[in-house]
Write a structure and sequence with these properties.
The complex is a heterodimer of chains A (about 400) and B (about 350).
Chain A (H helix, E strand, L loop, with lengths): L7 H17 L11 E6 L7 E4 L4 H11 L3 E9 L7 H4 L1 E4 L1 E6 L11 H23 L7 E5 L4 E6 L9 H12 L5 H4 L1 E10 L2 E10 L7 H19 L3 H7 L4 H10 L2 H8 L7 H15 L19 E3 L14 E2 L9 H4 L7 E6 L3 E5 L2 E5 L2 E6 H9 L3 E3 L2
Antiparallel strand pairs in A: 1-2, 1-3, 3-4, 3-10, 5-7, 6-7, 6-11, 8-9, 12-15, 12-16, 13-14
Helix pairs in contact in A: 1-13, 7-8, 7-11, 8-9
Chain B lengths: L3 H6 L4 H9 L4 H6 L4 H17 L10 H21 L2 H19 L4 H10 L4 E3 L6 E4 H7 L14 E2 L2 E4 L1 H22 L4 H6 L1 H20 L12 H11 L6 H13 L4 H8 L7 H11 L13 H6 L10 H5 L3 H12 L4
Antiparallel strand pairs in B: 1-2, 2-4, 3-4
Helix pairs in contact in B: 4-5, 4-6, 5-11, 6-9, 7-9, 12-13, 14-15
């Protein structure tokens, strides 16, 4: 097998395509342009070049033409001296709130192919924007910008002036809210005494019911409630409820027991907000509803700080992603549902080039289905760049 | 014109400054004139109480004179606090003022509280029909003590950016906002010579007791813990707690579980926390015992570096070479011990 990792020809080919793209297209520069730090990964370069600042836009465009970087980033923060070599000297002035959803962070992502991962992460992204940012946080649409990352995820930039100067721990709080961390179940469910018995002149509770919040309550209480009702409906409607429950991670024996418990009467009671279930079932409902309604932003163990990092770098809109050749494409709220990255972010030309593929590969891109065999073949440029970026192919000159 | 009786209860209000200005009272007068001797005595009392009782104290406010002296004692106390020139003491004094204000605020009407929040530029909505109070989430983030689990935003109802809070919650938020404001103001000011001269004996006396207090803490042996070998993250959290800064829940958790893993007893851990200006023995004991498994049946293990980073409590700019090689704060600490051994 040839060396697919360090082929100079392949790099030069991709770089040339990028050069042509940046010659004919302009990138979207952030506001407060002169106060931002910029960073680049060059083709064939080692690591990231950081701490660059540009005073004038034409300096930046000249840089692009001269270097043709593979990845372009800018700082979500703006600084007094953006090109100072250390963070302290830069003097932080504020930062947008950035949400970076990547399919890496989704549970079981490794079992899915690229297209499926993109679909799944879009679902999470929609939840984040619609349910949390617009609804709970009440951000004005005009302050929210959405982008496809060019790789495996989506970015959301919140530019509301009110949040620009919140600090790192305050940003952490926002993330905890969105990812459902530290939800106190006693605040969601509470026991209510339904009956009392008197002995002499003292009375004791004799009946208790577990109260669940109403679906229209604000914040997480309503969200958990809606999640539970939706789940119960899903389980009841499903052809194979046991299988459905297993999807939620319930053992078969428990699932059977749970299903027995879910009589019509019970379901009615749950919808009225009375969750008279055993402790384990209650826990199951809470955890599943939480997982269902929270945004999977980081699967916990291995993740860099994302949104709460007030100094993070983010991909420049309308730039290209080195590992796919796809564009960091702006999406509007209205078009998010229909957005298909494998159609809408593919911007490189389709003139054919010859490549050698090191493994069979299938993908539907620009509405065309490709079922590629290993070996030398001619493919449209955009697909060739994608395969080279994914280290699955090299160029044949 | 705000009533004098209110100003004396809430001397931090802008209206109090105006009152002093309108009455043409100069600082020199307040410091020298025998007329204000009582205000100066109360000023010292405020500072003493803040240090020893975590509350600047309640005094009779019946007569006009009571009220004027109380009002004037506030700027005096602050000037003394600045001259004592000790970060721990300044934090403790600010806390004492804030707690005192809170104890009065919980008895006031919602509208009164909302008026005060205007002064702190806190965005509050009040529904006149339902009497429900809600606060804009950014202001909530700035001021609410989200280091406690029940104050975390997730455990509050939020809609359209507004979080519904109780009257008592609002008083607590004002307490925190006031504490931050006094902290910042004290840090900005410098000790004035005339204040130092007027109160020099009290200032020295208090400086001595602060020093004694600090020594008591430092002299207390803390197990086998060697501060110098702590990884930067734990050093930061410990320093922040001891300086009385807000440390998020996860930071406290990380430190306690870390120290527990180093076989420090609960009492030893508590001792470390006890230097914090807002230390409450009972509450802290409960939290520590929960984490160390004394009262919860599970002893939690300390988070690794990945998790610390995820929670944003790994000081990424301060990590050293050893950090880069290690994936867990505990292994950092152990490696530091090993590094030392060959030298012996």
């Amino acid at each position: 097998m040839g060396n697919f990792l360090n082929s100079n020809d392949s790099l030069e080919f991709v770089k040339d395509e990028f050069r042509k793209y940046y010659k004919d297209n302009s990138v979207e520069l952030p506001d407060r342009f002169g106060r931002r730090e910029f960073a680049f990964v060059l083709f064939g370069g080692k690591g990231i070049i950081r701490h660059l600042g540009f005073e004038k836009i034409n300096q930046f465009t000249d840089f692009l033409k001269e270097k043709t970087p593979g990845d372009i980033y800018y700082s979500s923060a703006y600084y007094q001296i953006p090109d100072a070599p250390t963070m302290q000297e830069k003097n932080w002035m504020g930062a947008e709130l950035i949400f970076d959803l990547d399919s890496d962070h989704l549970p079981n992502a490794e079992k899915l192919d690229y297209t499926q991962q993109l679909k799944m992460v879009k679902k999470e992204f929609f939840k984040l924007v619609d349910d949390f940012l617009l609804n709970d946080f009440g951000f004005d649409e005009k302050y929210i910008e959405l982008y496809f990352s060019g790789g495996r995820g989506y970015h959301c930039h919140v530019k509301d002036p009110k949040i620009l100067n919140i600090d790192s721990s305050e940003r952490r709080e926002i993330i905890d809210y969105i990812t459902g961390r530290d939800l106190k179940d006693s605040l969601v469910f509470h026991e209510q005494v339904t009956d009392r018995k008197s002995y002499g002149n003292r009375s004791f509770p004799s009946g208790k019911t577990l109260k669940m919040p109403r679906p229209d309550e604000p914040g997480w209480r309503g969200r958990v409630s809606r999640g539970i009702i939706e789940m119960v409906n899903e389980i009841k409607k499903s052809d194979d409820p046991i299988e459905k429950l297993k999807e939620y991670g319930v053992k078969k024996s428990d699932a059977e027991k749970l299903l027995d418990d879910l009589s019509e009467e019970r379901i009615k009671r749950i919808k009225e907000g009375r969750l008279d279930q055993s402790k384990t079932i209650r826990k199951f409902f809470l955890n599943s509803a939480l997982r269902k309604t929270a945004v999977s932003m980081s699967a916990g163990e291995t993740d860099e700080p994302v949104t709460c990092d007030v100094k993070r770098l983010i991909r420049l809109p309308a730039s290209l992603h080195r590992k796919t050749g796809f564009k960091v494409e702006k999406i509007t709220l209205e078009t998010l549902m229909e957005f298909d990255p494998l159609r809408d972010a593919v911007v490189l030309p389709d003139n054919p080039v010859k490549i050698e593929l090191n493994q069979p590969f299938g993908i539907t891109i620009k509405k065309e289905e490709f079922n590629l065999k290993q070996g030398i073949q001619e493919l449209p440029t955009y697909l060739a760049v994608f395969l080279i970026g994914r280290k699955k192919a090299k160029i044949i000159l | 014109m705000v009533e004098l009786s209110l100003l004396s209860k809430y001397p931090f209000l802008n209206a109090s400054k105006e009152y002093i200005k309108d009455n043409n009272l100069s600082i020199q007068e307040i410091l020298d004139d025998p007329l204000y001797e009582r205000a100066r005595i109360i000023g010292v009392e405020r500072v003493d109480n803040a240090f020893s009782k975590r509350d600047v104290g309640e005094r009779s406010l019946v007569t006009d004179s009571d009220q004027i002296m109380e009002l004037l004692s506030y700027p005096i106390a602050r000037m003394i606090a600045v001259c004592i020139d000790d970060i721990f003491f300044k934090r403790r004094y600010a806390l004492g003022e804030a707690i005192h204000a809170y104890r009065n605020l919980i008895n006031e009407s919602p509208l009164f509280l909302i008026n005060i929040t205007n002064e702190f530029k806190i965005n509050i909505k009040f529904d006149k029909d339902t009497h429900k109070i809600s606060i804009y989430f950014v202001d909530y983030l700035h001021h609410a003590p989200t280091r406690y689990k029940e104050w975390k935003m997730i455990n509050r109802g939020m809609k359209n950016g507004y979080i519904q809070i109780s009257h008592k919650d609002l008083a607590r938020i004002i307490q925190e906002a006031l504490r931050t404001r006094i902290n910042n103001e004290l840090d900005e000011r410098k000790c004035s010579k005339s204040v130092y001269e007027t109160f020099s004996s009290d200032i020295k006396r208090i400086q001595n007791s602060v020093m004694l207090h600090r020594k008591n803490i430092e002299a207390a042996p803390i197990g086998k813990l060697d501060n110098k070998k702590l990884p930067p993250c734990m050093k930061n959290i410990l320093a922040a707690i001891q300086a009385g800064e807000n440390v998020p829940h996860m930071g406290r958790f990380a430190l306690v579980s870390f120290l527990h893993s180093l076989r420090l007893s609960n009492n030893e851990i508590l001792k470390l926390f006890s230097t914090a200006p807002d230390y409450e023995e009972e509450r802290t004991r409960y939290q520590v015992e929960h984490i160390t498994g004394y009262s919860s049946s599970t002893a939690y293990s300390p988070p690794g570096c990945d998790k610390m980073r995820t929670y944003g409590i790994c000081p990424t700019e301060e990590i050293d070479e050893l950090c880069k090689k290690k994936r867990h704060p505990l292994s950092y600490y152990k490696a530091k011990w090993k590094q030392e051994k060959p030298k012996k």
